[in-house]
C-alpha cells in the first residue's frame, strides 16, 4: 500500500512541477498560482519523504 501511495504522490508532484514551470514563464501574472503550487508541492514532498522512511 505504501508503494501505491508513493507513486500517487510522485505523480502529483510531477503535475505540480509542470504547473510551476508553466507559471514561471509569467511570474507577474501567475504570482498567486506560483505561491499556491509551491506550497502544495512542499506539502506533498514532505509526505513523500515521511512515507519513504
UniProtKB/TrEMBL annotation:
It comes from the Bacteria. GO terms for molecular function: protein dimerization activity. GO terms for biological process: regulation of sporulation. InterPro entries: HLH_DNA-bd_sf, Spo0E-like, Spo0E-like_sf. Pfam families: SpoOE-like. This is Aspartyl-phosphate phosphatase Spo0E family protein. Signal peptide: none annotated.
Amino acid at each position: 500500500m505504501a508503494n501505491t501511495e508513493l507513486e500517487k504522490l510522485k505523480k502529483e508532484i510531477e503535475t505540480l512541477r509542470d504547473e510551476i514551470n508553466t507559471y514561471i514563464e509569467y511570474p507577474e501574472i501567475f504570482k498567486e498560482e506560483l505561491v499556491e503550487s509551491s506550497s502544495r508541492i512542499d506539502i506533498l514532498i514532505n509526505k513523500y519523504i515521511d512515507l519513504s522512511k
